[in-house]
Amino acid sequence: MRYWADGKPTMYVPDWHLLSTSDHIIVVFGILDALTLNKFRLPVVTPTHGHVFHAEWLADYRKPIYIIPDKGEEKSVLRMMGDFGWRGKMVRLEWPDGMKDANDFLQAGRQNELLAQLSQVIR
To answer: CA-to-CA distance for 101 and 29, rounded, in angstroms?
Structure first.
């Protein structure tokens, strides 16, 4: 499912019901990363074009928003944090060698490591 603004795709949401009923939201940057986290029933969204994410897309949700940047892309997340106010929290994962995003954990069969890291910061 997608949220459409002015006829242009802006945000991909794999499970709108999960997004609505969860007590938090996770933002990642890539559809494969969103699908990876959705596989584990995590409430996730992603922009459909690069690292452009507008806080107003989630303005109706008054809950914490955990933003998971890809490896090395923390600066772009820091710039957007202020837009989310009290809700925005960056999640800094420990990236094993050769991994740069959530989907890489799944592809390497190391999803338990990813889930363990997430459980330490997302409550």
So the answer is: 9
Per the structure, the complete domain to which residue 105 belongs is given by 2-121
Find, among 43, 49, 46, the residue nearest to 64 by Cα: 43
Read off the amino acid at residue 75: K
Cα–Cα dist 72/5, whole Å? 29
| pTM score of the predicted model | 0.89
> What is each CA distance from 22 to 33, 102, 122, in whole angstroms?
18, 20, 12
Helix (H) or strand (E) holding 103, with range, is helix 102-107
Question: What one-character DSSP code corresponds to residue 30?
Answer: S
Sign of CA pseudo-dihedral 77, 119, 59, 47: positive
Judged against a pLDDT cut of 70, whether residue 34 lies above it is answered with yes
Is the alpha carbon torsion for 92, 93, 99, 103 positive or negative?
Answer: negative
Kindly report the CATH number assigned to the domain that includes residue 73: 3.40.1360.10
* Residue 83 tokens, joined: 């837009």
pLDDT tens sequence across 17-30:
999 999 999 999 99
